Amino acid sequence: MTPVDPGADLLLLRRFEPQFRTTRGEQFYPIPLEAYLPLTDLMVRRRDGQPHVVTERPHVTQEVLAACEEAGPDSITYLHMVREPLTTIQLVQFRARSTLREFHEGTTRFARVGIFARLLDMAFRISLLARGRVPGGVAAAAATSAQEAAAAHPWPVYYGRVVRTQSYTVLQYHVFYAYNDYRSHYHGANDHEGDWEHISVYLSEDAQGAPVPEWVAYAAHDADGADQRRRWDDPELRKFGEHPVVHIGAGSHGAYFSPGEYIIRIEIPLLARVSSWAGAVRTSWQRLFRQGALPRRPVPTGASPSPSWTTLGEMGSC
What we know:
Elements: H1 6-15, E1 19-21, H2 33-36, E2 41-45, E3 51-55, H3 62-67, E4 76-80, H4 88-97, H5 115-127, H6 136-150, E5 159-164, E6 169-180, H7 182-186, E7 192-205, E8 211-218, E9 229-231, E10 239-240, E11 243-248, E12 255-256, H8 269-289
């Protein structure tokens, strides 16, 4: 096996590293873990439902996490960043000096289409009421802490990895956000602490062994399969030289190929149960009365499965 040259891998990662485009007013940018971990407490929530502190800030490090033992099948171990939300006065002061004032919600496409699409938009907004809400001071407190910690790291940080397979050399770019303020500041679905996002560039080799970009895959929220990838020569994929351009969703930090407005589907538990019940009734009706098409079962062929694409998404959500 040919030994891997770390220097060559680093050159590859830098050659094709993505270029991020963010929305005006974005409060969180990719930061290094060594800047984030001291802002958190290592917590465990056991069967009694009460959280307990395992390691207090600022003593949480990667070494502490690596040495952390499993808390048991009935427990959850996690990092907690925001202890107390900002007070009302502090929140007003934050909004007065924050770049959030640069964000202006424009006329959405729902205002330019028919009444049915507008009703769907209204239903989406109403559904948010069923999900509860994180106090606005929490997102502001997270932004204040993250921005102070990131002051020593003025440039966004990514973690690169090169994976070689029989078909491709895959350049993986992992970025970490301290907080998602999608709901509090951008009228989205939810807020949460900690968010890993992922971009992949797939390379082949030409006759001389030089790398040739073939595909890119983005961690686009609410997308799967072919919707998460584009060929390198796809006109929808924007590039700056050899750097694929990534449009970052405001507050959600999802990665998209084009700028625009994207709606994330939300599953409401009550409607999910109704849908499951309706599906069971439909299947029973079809089997009992032989009406309608039953789902076809896959026929085993004995052939080995084709290589699968990397499943992307939020990998560190809490």
